Amino acid sequence: MDSDPRLLVVAVDDVLIGPLCEGLDHLGWTTLTGRSLNAAEQVLKDMTVDAAVVDARGLEGQDIVARLREAAAPRYLPILMIGSSAAEGGDVDLMMSSPPHPSQAALRLEQLIRAGIAEEEFRLRQATFAAHGVTLTAPDLGETPLQILTAGAADRRFLAMSNALSASGAEVVAAPTPYTAFDYLHERAFDAAVLWGGQDHAPALSIASGMKRNTRLYHIPLILYLRGAGEVELADLFRRGFADVAAAETPEDETAERVLALARNHRRRQAIRRALDSVRGSDLMDAATGLFTRDLFASHLARVAEGARLRNRALSVCVLRVAERDPVAQARGGGWLDRAMPQIGAMVSRLVRVEDTAARLGPELFALVLPATGVAAARLAAERISAVIACTAFDAGKDRSPFVVEFDVGVAEMQPGETPAAVLERASADLPKG
Hints:
Blueprint: E1 6-10, H1 18-26, E2 30-34, H2 37-46, E3 51-55, H3 64-72, E4 79-82, H4 86-89, E5 94-96, H5 102-131, E6 147-151, H6 156-167, E7 171-175, H7 178-187, E8 192-197, H8 202-212, E9 222-226, H9 234-239, E10 244-246, H10 252-277, H11 294-311, E11 315-322, H12 326-333, H13 336-351, E12 357-362, E13 365-371, H14 375-390, E14 407-413, H15 420-429
Parallel strand pairs: 1-2, 1-3, 3-4, 4-5, 6-7, 6-8, 8-9, 9-10
Antiparallel strand pairs: 11-13, 11-14, 12-13
Helix pairs in contact: 1-5, 2-3, 5-10, 5-11, 6-10
């Protein structure tokens, strides 16, 4: 997401969501207010906005979602609506009866923004492959109901929420303890997990911690359902990896709908990743790593750059070059570095986000294009990928110690009027000399 996100607030007054806006301002969001739907539409036409929060009071009977989305086009505008019913919300991304904690709102809005960017990227990727004679099929969401894990001791409210999930068509699996929860998590795939925060939050926090340490479970959205208000530091819970926290007074039906919204988003993103991965064996891709080739990357970078200009989004390019180290030089001489490249390429492809594109530009040179990402965030992403790969030991042959691969990193953010080739060249020039 862009480093300075802009949020449109549509509200006739500040009574309901004024404190939420103040909290988001403190978190680095720029909030722009429209006191009427007409004013909000004008803001969207005049300025670049990443998401919208709507106070539905006083706006009843107006086609809020459709009008805001049309004014924001060609950008997809994620919308969080507060104080409305499901019937009034229509095609809104998320509905809540009362304003959430600012950290909670920021996290959910970021998730919705990135989901929209992933959808945009998939359409761009389809166009790139079509131009090269390859059909990228639409994401397959599968026919099975949404799979929801509920973990925690039986409680009236927790059971009521589970029943609401089942009534909506989801398949709910109940785990009474952390041990049984992890048994289920390792046996089958889930679209979301709801953890019961009873009198003691320790079991829920233990499950959350374990899932965030597991690369296969890391992306499953976690929801904490609180039994009572208590002394809970919400910002800390979100730092621990929870995607949502339902307060004690939240109606069970609303909590269930928020869980389902997260589950649907997760399943969609996983389906997009599978669809994108389906072409890894294509002749267009690098045979050893399954990543984009140099030519295909150049073609797609031009399309993504044009999309970024059209939507006024940031765009960054990263270049990762195998760093010259003695163990790497020795492994190269024996052909062991080449043997490690398929695994390295697979790791790069899994460590980038769904909407990012990874390519192999040369035998030991990789590139990433990161949409809606500024240079600072792009550098962090590239360095994180490098750090994870540097923790992996690769075989160097009999009687020789395994070797590790580190990367030199170069990053550049596309500037107004700059060509895709120029930004890639600047990223390459940013690599450490020597």
